[in-house]
Amino acid sequence: MKQIITRLRRHWMPLLAINSALLAGTIYAVGASTTIPSVWKANAELNIPQSTDQLNSSLGSLGNVQNVGLDFKNVNPLQIQLSILTSDIVLERVRKMDPEGDSYARLNDYKELFVITPQEVSTIIALEAKASHPQLAADRLSMLIQVYQERLNELRHNDANVREQFAQDELNKSRNNLIQVQTQLSKFQKATGITDIAEQSKGLIASINGLKTAKAQAIAQAQANETQAQVAAANLNMTPAQALNSLRLGENQEYQAIRTKVAEVETALAEARGIYTDESPLVQSLLVRRQELRRILAEQKATALPGGTNEPVDTTLGGNAGNSRLEMIAELTRARNTAKGLYQQANQIQTQINKLNAELSSITSNQGELTELQRRYEIAEGAYKGIIAQIQQTKTNPFSVYPNVQVLDQPTIDTKPLQPSQKLIVFGGAIAAIFGSIALIIFLEGRNPMLRPKDLQQIELPILGKISRLKRPNLEKHLEAEIEIDFQRLASAILMAENNRLMITSSTAGEGKTTVTLGLALALVNFGFRVLIVDGDLRQAEMSRRLGHLPAKVKADDKPTLVPICAGLDLIPAPLIPKAKVAKYFASGEFEESFRPLADSNAYDYVLVDSPPISLASESTMINAAIRDVLFVVRSGKSDRHSVMDSLEQLNWHHARVMGLIVNSVDFLSEGYRYGNRRELQEAEG
């Protein structure tokens, strides 16, 4: 609370200005509210039912087109109706029908008479009209509903006509495109013989798989017959070719007849050799005969085996129909022939498979073009069906875009007119004053914040004294009175200083540096010291004025005027110098020369210089060249943080020795107690 009061004191002037302006505005608003005529209000409600008409049409591979009326999930129809209700066309027609419509030069002014509010999570629109008379308000609302419904009918007719005209043009284009694509598709199918890629490919693949199966079976049977022939050949101990040649010789009658004759000659020769010698004519004739028959047998063999072969042939076969070896050879031959036949069959099947693969490849190569033609045909057919569906939708459902509007509540008049509430105006002014003041304080504090105790801790300078709010702020009028205890404490702290020349300054005006200087001087005098006060604030000369000595003009060779104030306290008042020459007065050293002789004469124990504020004048830094020790005064609730920090930085830049801070106008929690003799206490209590 104390901080709030402090800030109010600090910014009382801008706060007074803004609150005065708000008060004047509130008074004007209250006065103006008495001159505003009464306003009557009429209300009505409209309902926009959700359409349930449905129209479905298949677009082939493109899907279906479906009309389900107004879908509140995707679009809010109330906003569409609100736009129509507040359109310039509708309200302009209503204004022309209004008896007082000519009094509104601008259509926007006339629009302000109507309030149209769509209700959330419903299909209801609330209407409100204002007028200077009750019946006029109801008539205005009725005219608005009438013109609104007429406008809806116009929009329905226009929408239907435009849709139908546009759809007819698009229908003709779509029909021509469909016929063109259909013709191209038919020509392509006729040229390639491809009608249904999926079915034809499926049939070809099935045929190819069947032929591959038959081929595999034929090869398997052929291999089985070959195996059977090889087994028979192994049993006969001859190759299939040898077995075949042996069979040929065995079935050759001429060869067998000659072989029989050779056997007979062999028999006769064996018998003759058993009786006769080889030189016997009989033996010789048999040898010749055998030789002749062998030659004939060899010729017959060559005739029976025309190809000739070097492989051995079994010539012992034949002549016996029941010979089992002949049957085995015959079985071997049949197995070989069967295997050859099956291999030929497999080759023929492979040829057929190759033809089917070529046909399938042809379908695959033409698949892209056929698919593209079929896709174009489906798109053209779907677009054609979609346009037909849109035409049917336009004819069968004229309320699909602009639904039928139902009047739930006819216009009713409010029994109580609308009038400005003076209480609300006053309350609003009070709220504006409160929040405006808070905002102004926050703005001013943010731009130039007040010095806080935390800031004093960051400065890292000792606090030499804290001066409470003075009971007698006009010290110059009570020079002989008891000195405040706070100034006595400050004087005690000053006694520790090595230098007796002190400059008392502050960051800006109003922080009490002049009061602190005078109080400190009186406290030192009370301690028995001789004190000289030098008024260094030539622009304001506050110290000189308070002690009753106005600035006087001085010449360059004039000695400084020494004014006795009280016992032990003298004053060198500020000379009257033009403001343009004040800086020169300090820079030339004239100010220092004005009090140096007195300060060096040991006539005074302390010299206190009341300097101007550092942030408002440049003389303080020039005074600091002569007096290094500085007492810096800050005031609680008054000093600005930025100004104090900048002033201390300037002093540091000029190598000033800031002995410490003096905090002025401190609010202590307790009042303390009076300390003195008993008589003074009794007088105080009395």
TrEMBL record:
GO CC, sorted alphabetically, is:
plasma membrane
- Residue ranges spanning the membrane: these are 12-31, 424-444
Domain of life, source organism? Bacteria
Q: Which CDD domains match?
A: BY-kinase
Q: Which InterPro entries match?
A: Bact_polysacc_biosynth/exp, CobQ/CobB/MinD/ParA_Nub-bd_dom, P-loop_NTPase, Wzc-like_C
Extract the Pfam families matched here.
CbiA
User: From the record, what ranges are coiled-coil?
Assistant: 138-165, 339-366
Q: Which SUPFAM superfamilies match?
A: P-loop containing nucleoside triphosphate hydrolases (SSF52540)
Keywords linked to the UniProt accession: ATP-binding, Coiled coil, Membrane, Nucleotide-binding, Transmembrane, Transmembrane helix
Provide the CobQ/CobB/MinD/ParA nucleotide binding domain boundaries: 502-667
**One example GO MF annotation:** protein tyrosine kinase activity
Q: Which PANTHER family match?
A: FERRIC ENTEROBACTIN TRANSPORT PROTEIN FEPE, TYROSINE-PROTEIN KINASE
Name of the molecule in the record: Lipopolysaccharide biosynthesis protein
What species was this sequence derived from?
A: Aliterella atlantica CENA595
